[in-house]
Structure formats: structure tokens, C-alpha cells
């Protein structure tokens, strides 16, 4: 009888399950683990998102630089019929705008110049304007209506040392463009794109000094 009672008590204890204290401890530990896992997941998702944004912005900056560099590198003086002095390659320029003559995307068998302009629109996007040119009788003429396209952005507002366009002379100094652009031998292009979604506040910044070898050839020929 005593043995049977002992077995019944043992069975009752084994079927009793968790006590309230044990249950609360289990819930607390589970909550802590879930919080840690959730926090880790959120951090990984944030890092991945920021990395994707940074990659996209870097790609945008690189594409802008490539587009502008190709045009500047093929810039050239434009001959004037009956004159030994050609028109300068740079038509006009400021820290945030540039207009020049270039033999970009032309037919090598019958090259024709194109007048190309760059400006920043109200949304901060870099815009390219192109005026198709044609040559006849030693003169080049250009259509009056430009074909425009948005290259990308938004870019940082050009100012101070981060001017979009800086004009450099043959000695490597900033050229005096207050009167003309004859002394300009290269153009330093600075493209900055805000990187606000990543850690820190530093923007993505690309800087490239682009030479204009066709100008030297034109000077040698004159």
C-alpha cells in the first residue's frame, strides 16, 4: 500500500508540468533571444540597404563623370573661313555650367562638330544639351534648338573648392576666365552626390582633371 501511494505521488509530480516561476523564466529568456535576433536582422537589413544605396550613388557619379569626360576630351577649336584664328573650344563656362565645341560621337570619315552644354536643373540633376553641327565652306553652323537629356543626379550644389567645373591652364594653375578661355588647357570636374543614408555624412565625391589634346594640335597648326 505504501509503495502504491508513493508511485501515485511520483506520477502526480511528473504530470504537474512547469511551475509559474519556471514558465515566467522561460518566457523571459525567449523574449531576450527573440529581441537579439530581431535586432541583428534589422541591423543586417539596414547595412544591406545602405550598401545598395551607396553602390547606386557611386554608379551614378561614375556615369556622370564618364559622360562629361568623353565630351571634354574631344573638345576642339572650330575653324573660321578666311581667318587664321579659330573659334575657341570653350564657348562659355562658370563653376556650374559649361558650353563647348566637341567632336564627340562623330563619324571619323566625315567629322562634324557638336556644341555641347552642361547645366544643373532645379532638381539638382546634371543636364546635357547638344546642338548638332555641320561644316560647309570652312565654317561650322549649329542648329538653333538643342536636344537635351538628363544625365543623372541629384548632385551637390557646386560651390567653392567643389565647383562642378574648374578651368586649369597649361601650368596647372586655375585659369583667369574673366576675359576669355584661351588659356584653358584642361578642366577639373568635381561630381558630388549626397550619401545621407549611410553611416556618416561624407558625400560620394569624384574628381577628374580632363585634358583637351585637340586644343594643343590646333595651337600647333596656327
Describe the fold and architecture:
The chain is built from three helices and nine strands, in the order H-H-E-E-E-E-E-E-E-E-E-H. With 222 residues, it is of the alpha+beta class. The protein has one domain (50-221). The strands form two sheets. Strands 1, 2, 3, 4, 5 and 6 form a six-stranded antiparallel sheet that branches. Strands 7-8-9 form a three-stranded antiparallel sheet. The longest helix is centred in the first third of the chain and has 54 residues, at 20-73.
Task: Give a nutshell description of this structure.
The chain is an alpha+beta fold and 222 residues long. Helix content is 34%, strand content 27%. The protein has 3 helices and 9 strands.
Keywords:
222 residues; alpha+beta; 6-stranded antiparallel beta sheet; 3-stranded antiparallel beta sheet; 9 strands
Which ranges are low-confidence, i.e. pLDDT below 50, for 5 or more consecutive residues?
A: 217-222
How large is the share of residues in beta strands? 25-35%
Oligomer: single chain
Q: Whole-number average pLDDT?
A: 82
Number of strands: 9
The biggest sheet amounts to: 6 strands, antiparallel
The total domain count is 1
Element-level helix/strand string: HHEEEEEEEEEH
Q: How many whole angstroms does the radius of gyration measure?
A: 34 Å
The CA-CA distance between the termini, in Å, is: 126 Å
Q: Please give the share of residues in helix.
A: 25-40%
Which structural category fits the helices and strands? alpha+beta
* Apparent shape: rod-shaped
Count the DSSP helices: 3
